[in-house]
């Protein structure tokens, strides 16, 4: 520590940290400063040598030589070539590609929302209050007693839920439970989550109506069962009518009932997983509460649990102090649950995504959320009635799975692009042959649904040759999807070389 104050104000700001009583502590040593000046990262940098391997270095940097108008027009053309939720309907079943209201983006862009996550709890009381209220909102919506906001995505929420379940069983001396039951029509992430959590996956067949086969479930349950992962309504859009009996069977076997929140759109304001007997659930806020979805993130997948599992949630969580005992101290504080599984994401989760979730819920309120689920169910049933393709299972709720019959579902999807709409999810769930899994969401108008139906029906009447050659009117024609996934062209230089 030095008693001398650096002479140059900029040097003082960049290189020293005020400690106390006029004393400053250097932030950078002379060796560090040498690295900064020459742009290097280790001792070799002082000699002008790169610390990177030779095959990752280059002698010169070639950049595109473009004027501002050329650059602006290039990106404008790209935006016009891409179909997005602002372009039209996006009826991907299960994925729930809702329209993202712009007011939530405005809220997230407020200067007051730009709060560094590493500030002390005393200095971010407003942020903590919002997070506390969001925990409460989500808990009441799902019928859960406690909520963590840390998981950064739905799949991450699944993993947290399964790890919480594992910690609960271990704490109760039942670490031998090493099996998780997953219905065959479940999301692929359910199988992956259970396996990643260290469990053996037991696949559960559906009955003739597309729901959980109770006899098969009873046969699958044992003293080794840790949990049953279930979506309700399920992937076919069907409500599990025997849910209370399912919950009783799982609990009698000593297992936990896990709720995949992918289809919570159908239940908002009308039914709660906690009331059905579910012990733990994750919320896909990008699906249910209209925060941006797709493109790799950021996302958020909060997890709710019943009281017995609350001590195992990730740390930290937010709680409200007793108002009578604060004595002027901060009302909201961070705390670690007694048997926490630890931290699963930095700080409090993806803060701005959670802020958008809070804004969406707060604006809609109880009546608005209930109206959203009613409209989602109405839109799905109206669209299904208008299309010529067969819908083998019902009655359904917010989504349905049609069958392309003798047509290839992937060809149907590509041909629908020529009619100016985005196609549904295809080829899944496999319980429906050539599946067209469709979810129009609550935001689409009757006119939009009629346009979607017209596209479905036009493709249904076309021959195989036309479908095999589709799409014809899009910027990119039919591509080699395998090569595109395994050998992507990631730079403009590579694109020029290929051409």
From TrEMBL:
Keywords assigned by UniProt, alphabetized: Oxidoreductase, Pyridoxal phosphate
Ranges annotated as biased composition (Polar residues): 481-499
Annotated Basic and acidic residues bias: 470-480
Xref: InterPro entries: Aminotrans_V_dom, GDC-P_C, GDC_P, PyrdxlP-dep_Trfase, PyrdxlP-dep_Trfase_major, PyrdxlP-dep_Trfase_small
Domain Aminotransferase class V stretches: 166-294
Listed EC numbers: 1.4.4.2
Pfam families: Aminotran_5 (PF00266), GcvP2_C (PF21478)
Glycine dehydrogenase C-terminal domain location: 372-465
Region (Disordered): 20-61, 464-499
SUPFAM superfamilies given in the database record: PLP-dependent transferases
GO CC terms of this entry: cytosol; glycine cleavage complex
GO molecular function, one term: pyridoxal phosphate binding
Protein name in the entry: glycine dehydrogenase (aminomethyl-transferring)
């Amino acid at each position: 520590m030095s008693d001398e104050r650096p002479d140059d104000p900029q040097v003082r700001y960049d290189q020293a940290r005020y400690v106390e009583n006029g004393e400053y502590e250097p932030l950078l040593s002379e060796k560090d400063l040498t690295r900064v000046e020459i742009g290097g990262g280790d001792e070799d940098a002082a000699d002008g040598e790169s610390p990177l391997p030779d095959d990752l270095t280059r002698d010169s940097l070639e950049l595109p030589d473009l004027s501002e108008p050329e650059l602006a027009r290039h990106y404008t053309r790209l935006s016009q070539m891409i179909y997005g939720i602002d372009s039209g309907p996006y009826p991907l079943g299960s994925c729930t590609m809702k329209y993202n209201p712009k007011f939530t983006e405005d809220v997230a862009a407020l200067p007051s929302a730009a709060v560094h996550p590493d500030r002390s709890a005393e200095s971010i009381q407003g942020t903590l209050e919002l997070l506390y209220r969001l925990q409460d909102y989500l808990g009441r919506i799902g019928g859960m007693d406690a909520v963590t906001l840390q998981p950064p995505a739905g799949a991450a929420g699944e993993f947290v839920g399964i790890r919480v379940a594992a910690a609960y069983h271990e704490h109760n001396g039942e670490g031998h439970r090493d099996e998780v039951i997953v219905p065959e029509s479940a999301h692929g992430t359910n199988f992956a989550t259970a396996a990643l959590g260290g469990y053996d996956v037991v696949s559960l067949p559906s009955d003739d109506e597309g729901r959980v086969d109770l006899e098969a479930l009873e046969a699958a349950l044992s003293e080794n069962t840790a949990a049953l992962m279930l979506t309700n309504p399920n992937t076919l859009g069907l409500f599990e009518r025997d849910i209370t009996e399912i919950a009783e069977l799982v609990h009698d076997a000593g297992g936990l009932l896990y709720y995949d929140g992918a289809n919570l759109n159908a239940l908002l304001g009308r039914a709660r997983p906690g009331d059905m007997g579910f012990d733990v659930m994750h919320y896909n806020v990008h699906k249910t509460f209209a925060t941006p979805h797709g493109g790799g993130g950021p996302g958020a997948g909060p997890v709710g649990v019943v009281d017995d599992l609350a001590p195992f949630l990730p740390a930290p969580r937010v709680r409200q102090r007793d108002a009578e005992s604060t004595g002027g101290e901060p009302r909201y504080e961070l705390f670690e649950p007694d048997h926490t599984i630890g931290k699963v994401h930095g700080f409090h989760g993806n803060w701005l995504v959670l802020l958008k979730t809070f804004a969406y819920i707060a604006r809609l309120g109880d009546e608005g959320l209930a109206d959203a689920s009613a409209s989602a169910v109405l839109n799905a049933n109206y669209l299904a009635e208008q299309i010529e393709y067969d819908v083998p299972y019902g009655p359904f709720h917010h989504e349905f799975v049609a069958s392309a019959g003798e047509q290839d579902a992937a060809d149907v999807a590509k041909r629908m692009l020529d009619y100016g709409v985005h196609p549904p999810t295809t080829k899944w769930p496999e319980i429906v042959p050539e599946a067209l899994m469709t979810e129009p969401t609550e935001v689409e108008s009757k006119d939009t649904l009629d346009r979607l139906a017209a596209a479905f029906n036009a493709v249904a009447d076309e021959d195989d040759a036309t479908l095999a050659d589709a799409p014809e009117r899009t910027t990119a024609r039919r591509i080699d999807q395998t090569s595109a996934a395994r050998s992507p062209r990631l730079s403009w230089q590579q694109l020029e070389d290929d051409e």
